Amino acid sequence: MLPGLGCFLSSLLREDEGLPQGEDACAETLRQERPLEMSAKVRVPFLRQVVPISKKVARDPRFDDLSGEYNPEVFDKTYQFLNDIRAKEKELVKKQLKKHRSGQEHEKLQQLLQRMEQQEMAQQERKRQQELCLALKQERRAQAQQGHRPYFLKKSEQRQLVLAEKFKELKRSRKLDSFLSRKRRRNAGKDRRHLPLNKD
Length: 200
Prior knowledge:
Blueprint: H1 5-17, H2 23-29, H3 72-78, H4 81-99, H5 104-146, H6 155-172, H7 176-194
Keywords: Coiled coil, Nucleus, Ribonucleoprotein, Ribosome biogenesis, rRNA processing
Subcellular location: Nucleus, Nucleolus
Coiled coil: 99-139
């Protein structure tokens, strides 16, 4: 079909039927995404008005309202099966580590195992903090039911409580001395860095 022929035919049909004709009749036949038909006799302007292409908007599910609100307790319950998978993977890495006694492969596996253990420790720490926060919430609720005004802890006070809980745990597992000696060494290294150098 020749360009503009559809528009012409529709205007002819409208003439026969006695319907309104002209630009309105022609515009109805044109679709929205169809390019404009320009006359060859009319000179094209220098700054031509081009139909804008609809830009695709990227959607990040982490910050989108459609994904819902993050709740750590619900998240942990939903993805509980991942812990079993991680435990199996850890056992697999340990077996591989026994096979490769030395070399580059051994070092890679050693680093992987260390990272897995660190992630596990971080997860346990997070779980402990969640349990502590839950206990504090329950305590506040109980105070509110008794008629007392609930006291909301500052973040610094929460950190102190978490640290106290960590010390109790270390004392129970008899790792407190090694933890404190490591912390002392780290602090001594930091202090040494801040000392001025002796220039004689």
